[in-house]
Each structure stands twice: as C-alpha cells, then as structure tokens.
Amino acid sequence: MSGSAWFTLGLGAACWLAALPASGAISAQIPPECGSLAEFEQELEQRLGGVSAPEATRVTLTPEVSGYRLVVEAGNQRRELHDSSCQELLRAAVVITLALLETKREEATLPPPEPARAAPPARAAPPVPTALKASHSRLELALGAGGGLHVGTLPQATLLLEIDAQLKWARFGVAAGLRYLLPTSTVDEGHGGARINAPGASLVALFEPWRRVQTRLGVVTYRLSAIGFGSAAPRDGAAWEVAPTLGASFVPFARPPFWTSVGFEGQLNLLRPSFDIVEITNYHEVFRVPRLSASVFAHAGVVF
C-alpha cells in the first residue's frame, strides 16, 4: 500500500474518532421495565451537547424492596436517589449526569490562580431536583381486599371478608371499608337458637409511625341479622352494634403498584344487642354480643 493510501486511511480513522458522541465514556445499567437504554443514551447525548466526559461516568438503576435506587458516579462524585417510580428516576438520571459533567467542565476551564491571589472557592454541585421526593410526600389512593378471622361479634369465630379504600398523605390518612361476617349459629339447652350473620362498615384514621407499619383508630358498625329456630313461631330479627376500634398492620411486600399487609384489630362493643327466644308464657336470651371483639386479617391491593 502506498504512503498516500496510508495517510488517507489514518485521516479517516481520526475523523471517525472525533465524531464519537460525548457520552462515549458513560456506561448505563437500566432495567427493561424502566425504559429503553438506547433512548436514554440518545436523550443524554442531546442534552450533553458539547459537554465532554473526561472521566468514567456510570449510571446504575436497580430495583429494591420499596421501589428503585438510582446511583450516578462521575469521577469522585456520587449522587444517589430512591423512588417508587423507576421512570421518574430515569428522567432524573439525565439531569444529575448533566449537572456533574457541567461542574467538571467548569472546574477544568478555571484559569490557574495568580501567585498574589487566593484560589477561588470551589463551586458546590447543583442540588438534587426537589421534584423527586419519596412517594410518601404525595397524595396516594390505595384500594385493597382481603379476609381473616373474627371472634366476639357472632356466637362463634367466623370468617371476615373486607374491601377498603385508603387516602394517604405523608404519614397520615383515612380509610373506609365494607365488611361481612359469615353466619354462625347458637343453640340453648331447650334446643332453641339463632343463626346470625353481620354485614358492616368501618371508618378509621391512619398513622404510619415507621415505614411499612400502619396504625388505625376509628369506628366500626355491624347490622346483626338473625334467623330464629326452635320456638313455636320462628321469626327473624336484626339489631345494630357500634364499636370504637384500634388496630395495626405490617406491609411485608410493597412494589408499586402492588402491596400486601397483615394485621390485627380489637373493638370495644358499646352497643351490645341480644337475641331472645319467645315462648308462649316467657322468653329467654339465646345470644348477647360480648364486650370485646377482635380480628386478624390479610389484605392485598394496588396503590395509585
């Protein structure tokens, strides 16, 4: 090959290297569910423009128990964010990478200090964007359903079915739900008795003292419906029960938008209805709601 050909080949290689994008020294690790790696690199290249990356820059986005973690490293600088939305963190990665590289470029272009003057103070890195705060700092709507075991309101322990909706802001919130206690029966010595079920509703205030721990304080009411048997004239009856309630729950799994929880609840029955069997000459009580009731339950749902 002639000398002119070698010169032409070398010149072409030099031009190709000079045309490489500024993000060539930037590596990224992004889960597929968070976005396209190619689109991220293209947006990063467009935003960087003429800003070069003289040192290795690494962007890492990884899932964790409560959401996702973003780590951006440029030289000896490191920024870390946590959020439930990996798409929001991916958008923040571009802003943080640009801020770190812009700081590097400004430091590299500062003129050397004059002998008779003190060196200018180092410029602080731009603050992390305030729009990416933890998900607990915004309004959340959670819908859930579940079931458990309830004792105390009906004659025997029974299954509890429930659906509820929660509206939360930071550590506080409110919740409202509908419940149903599956029917159980009681029989007295004279073979008279009743079969009782109880639909109900609840309204409680929420407080989260620690992450994944939630406490509840409110009121629950049930409408006890009974079908009597064993008397001369069997009849149906209904009565209301109202009780303040106190409970707590733990969230073992939370990966937005899905979550699960397990917990317990106790109630103090202020209105205690009773059911009586009426005979021709007298009547006697077959069941009276006790003073205390309790539930254990498990829920699952989605958060918006």
The best one-word shape is rod-shaped
Write down how many β-strands occur, each being a DSSP E stretch of 2 or more residues.
Answer: 14
Number of helices: 3
Instruction: Outline the biggest β-sheet.
Output: 8 strands, antiparallel, barrel
- Secondary-structure element sequence? HEHEEEHEEEEEEEEEE
What's the alpha carbon Rg, rounded to whole Å? 33 Å
Question: Structural class from helices and strands?
Answer: alpha+beta
Helix content: 10-25%
Strand numbers in spatial order across the main sheet: 5-6-7-8-9-10-11-14
Beta-strand fraction estimate: over 45%
Mean pLDDT: 79
Report how far the terminal alpha carbons are from each other.
68 Å
Ranges where pLDDT stays below 50 over 5 or more residues in a row are 1-24, 130-136
Describe the structure.
Mean pLDDT is 79; it is low at 1-24 and 130-136. The chain has helices at 3-18, 37-48, 86-109; strands at residues 26-29, 57-64, 67-74, 77-83, 140-151, 158-169, 172-187, 193-210, 213-229, 236-255, 258-268, 274-278, 283-288, 292-303. The protein is rod-shaped and about 110 Å long. Helix content is 17%, strand content 51%.
Give a nutshell description of this structure:
The chain is of the alpha+beta class. It has helices at 3-18, 37-48, 86-109, and strands at residues 26-29, 57-64, 67-74, 77-83, 140-151, 158-169, 172-187, 193-210, 213-229, 236-255, 258-268, 274-278, 283-288, 292-303.
